[in-house]
Write a structure and sequence with these properties.
The protein is of the alpha/beta class. The chain has one domain. The chain contains eleven helices and eleven strands. The strands form three sheets. It has a seven-stranded mixed sheet with strand order 4-5-6-3-7-8-9, with helices on both faces. A two-stranded antiparallel sheet has the order 1-2. It has a two-stranded antiparallel ribbon with strand order 10-11. A hairpin with a 2-residue loop joins strand 1 and strand 2. It starts with 33 loop residues before the first strand and ends with a helix.
Length: 350
């Protein structure tokens, strides 16, 4: 299934964001990827700007005036301002000498990149030791049994002994889930956006959750399944009623004219996307009491202005003239700290 590219969002304070107007193109040639206050959120773009313990780079880099300060990003994110937040230090202290495995698609990788950023910012980072790297190498054969044959990547270690890994998975693969259970103590996972058939999605959630439930019953282990984040694609107005909101924001229902003239749109406040409806139905059976829900939909639902939007003319040539991304989110420290708070609280329950 086709998806929007793995790039990030657009920010609230930009005055040019009107629902029905096409968006100016993100400048990916200057400062790594910015448009006004919108910053591409992958680790290679943010690590030297927002992840250093000190702000020394802001003193010598001539491009610094192009980047919004972290304080400005915090102030602009009015959605996360009133929410409780946590630090990675809080989580690292909860999980000494345990392995945190984050599994999922490119939106989940954005969260992992934010955790990497916090690790350095909070001066928790230590080089992965030989024991950790050997452990990954030892388990590599497990990950090569399935279709994807992709072991986890981006190993990180905190001073508390907590270890982190990311595994790119967009749907259920039983061999990969089996490998993950041998790799991580605490597993945070989402599959959702790459499913259209909800009967198949529910069937595969049941199969995966049966595996996760066994893992989560063991002392020191936990599994959290994260809700699928909101998308904000402008919907085709087939009835010609002048829609100001999309019913779901889903890519499949998008107005295809926005592929070239990108416009993201708010979604109806009452909307529950189909993936989360299916997820709640499966968890509601009560068959998997140790698999816990990690909220994400409410955090992302109002963020229609926080998407990368017009991402045409990227240096790698991907979708050169037809790139509209209303899926991935721009970098917001406040958003990810709020999400981390939910993760910490739900881990305490798990």
């Amino acid at each position: 299934m086709k998806r929007a590219p793995a790039v990030v969002g657009i920010i609230l304070v930009c005055t040019f964001l009107i629902v029905h107007d096409s968006l100016p193109r993100m400048d990916v040639t200057i400062a790594g990827g910015i448009r006004g206050d919108c910053v591409v959120g992958e680790i290679e773009y943010i690590e030297h700007k927002y992840c250093e313990p000190t702000s020394t780079i802001r003193k010598h880099d001539p491009r610094i005036s192009l980047w919004p300060s972290e304080e400005r990003l915090e102030a602009a994110d009015v959605y996360s301002q009133p929410l409780p937040k946590a630090t990675l230090t809080d989580l690292a202290n909860m999980l000494p000498n345990q392995t945190l495995l984050i599994m999922g698609d490119s939106v989940m990788e954005q969260f992992y990149n934010a955790l990497q950023c916090m690790l350095r910012k909070e001066e928790l980072e230590e080089p992965p030791d030989d024991a950790f790297l050997n452990f990954i190498k030892k388990n590599e054969y497990l990950w090569k049994m399935g279709k994807r044959k992709m072991p986890p990547k981006l190993p990180q270690k905190a001073r508390t002994g907590m270890k982190m890994l990311f595994s790119r998975q967009v749907n259920y693969q039983p061999e990969d889930v089996a490998a993950s259970l041998q790799t991580g103590d605490v597993i945070v996972v989402n599959w959702g956006l790459h499913y259209d058939d909800m009967n198949k999605y529910k069937k595969e959630l049941h199969e995966a959750f049966a595996q996760f439930e066994q893992h989560a019953t063991r002392t020191g282990n936990a599994v959290l399944f994260r809700e699928t984040g909101a998308q904000h694609f402008k919907e085709a107005d087939e009835r010609g009623v002048g829609m100001l909101r999309s019913s779901t924001g889903e890519w499949e229902k998008r107005d295809k004219s926005t592929d070239k003239n990108c416009a993201c749109s708010p979604v109806e406040d009452f909307n529950v996307n189909k993936q989360n409806r299916a997820l709640h139905e499966v968890l509601g059976t009560g068959k998997y009491p140790h698999v816990k829900l990690l909220p994400f939909a409410d955090l992302t639902r109002p963020r229609w202005r926080w998407h990368f939007g017009n991402c045409t003319h990227r240096p790698n040539g991907w979708n050169w003239d037809t790139c509209c991304d209303c899926t991935h989110f721009c970098f917001s420290p406040g958003m990810w700290k709020a999400h981390l708070f939910d993760l910490k609280n739900n881990l305490q329950v798990a």
